[in-house]
Amino acid sequence: MTINGHMKEFNKKKEEIELDKELVKKQHEKGKLTAEERLALLLDEGSFTEIDEFVELKSHDFELQKKKKARDGVIIGYGKVNKRPVCVYAQDFTFMGGSMGEMHNRKIAKVMDFALKIGCPVIGLFDSGGARIQEGINGLDGGGHIFKMNTHCSGVIPQISAILGPCAGIAVYSPALTDFVFMVDKVSYMFITGPDVIKSVTGEKVDFMDLGGANIHGKKSGVANFVAGSEKECILKIKKLLTYLPQNNLDSPMSIDMGDSKKRMNNSLNDIVPTDPKKSYDVKDVITEVVDKNSFFEVHAEYAQNCVVGFARLNNTVIGIMANQPKILAGCLDINSSDKIAKFVRTCDAFNIPLINFVDVTGFLPGTDQEYNGIIRHGAKILYAYSEATVPKISLVMRKAYGGAYIALVSKEMGYDYVLSWPMAEIAVMGSEQAVNILFRKEISSAKGDKIKKEKINEFSSKFMNPYVAAKEGKIDKVIDPKETRVHLINALEMLLSKREKRPSKKHGNIPL
Prior knowledge:
The chain is an alpha/beta fold and 513 residues long. The chain has three domains: 27-242, 2-enoyl-CoA Hydratase, Chain A, domain 1 (Alpha-Beta Complex); 269-425 and 466-496, 2-enoyl-CoA Hydratase, Chain A, domain 1; 431-465, no CATH class. It is built from 21 helices and 16 strands. It has helices spanning 3-17, 21-29, 35-42, 102-118, 136-153, 173-176, 195-202, 208-212, 214-221, 231-242, 269-272, 283-290, 335-350, 368-372, 375-388, 403-409, 432-439, 441-444, 449-464, 467-472, 485-496; strands at residues 49-51, 74-81, 84-91, 122-128, 159-168, 180-184, 189-191, 226-228, 297-299, 307-314, 317-324, 355-361, 393-402, 418-421, 426-428, 478-479. Helix 6 links the parallel strand 5 and strand 6 (180-184). Helix 13 (335-350) runs parallel beside helix 15 (375-388) and helix 17 crosses helix 19. The chain is elongated and about 100 Å long. The mean pLDDT is 90.
């Protein structure tokens, strides 16, 4: 065959890959972009290189050979986002509903392995009805290969999943194994078993969105870290997230000059945070006042809102923030917030992102519901995550730090490198009223109980409910003026960036799951 013949065959093969216009139209009618359009939005113009574009399914069952097409329902390759290399895969719903067959799954596992070798983030754009039933066990085994690769990549390279349509059956487990999951409101949904199966097994009637829509996973289950209003917004959020992450676990996040002064005073903090420990406020106002301007990027914003986690920059350096939210459940820790905090802390530690806690917490949420559902086990995840973390760990006590929550979020013995406190901070086993009720039970039950109780509360508060008791013991490194919070946090962070800390050699720990 002549060179012209070879090129003619090559061009014909390339043409066969192109999407049918009718199928593209149907995808658009569903309010969805095609796989190619999504990749064009995500990646820097002209940077994408596709691999395995001529791969086809192999099965001869159910007349699949008549349906086969190059790519087998998924586009894989590499490119750049903001000039930084990434590996990507995008499922194509226009081909057999994006179903996951043997070769489809092999392609995904292959690009993940490639990302692991070169040390760059891997981003998956999901739009799949799940396993390709016609291919049977071969397709299922390929799913296992993907899950194994997710696990091998975990903690080595950032893994990001965007659900941009259905994600059902075996397709849901890979996103759950990644670091961050994005969903789109009224477009994407995830579930292991669909509404029809649920109805036949349990008799329960539920539609796709109420079962596994973006709002369900963003607010109730916690599966989704981010919920966007459109695919374009979702992809923009992915690009923003990447600016806070390193390429891999041996790298550090890039520094970006935010144009904010390291000497800027936080004069408004006294107005934001009431001195009365029983009054609430929005801790996000504290965070945005202290960190570099316009740098706070919240994670899991709708889930377990009694705590706030997210990324920010402090003097241009990326940090991970955990903050108690007094306006929700008084900032108490519960089962869901424990899971949220532990996952975020471990993600930051894996990717060399220093941690800063903004603490205002009375303790763990009491009640039979919490106890019966395992608050002990879930709360222990916070202890495990912070104890395991070797990145710089700074804690600021704003108003309250009581009991077990104090240990989890502040204690020097837990491994916090630097602990600061505002002058109004209360650090104790519990609040003064609760303590007095226990310590002076007999006296309070007497005829003059009310008067005695008030006296004892005032006495206990003045003696124990201040930061200086802890400061005398070296449990707090510095008591600071709130307006100097940013300055002191930057100074502490700069000193700790060179921190090196080793853990005992072991195969892996056993986190309380």
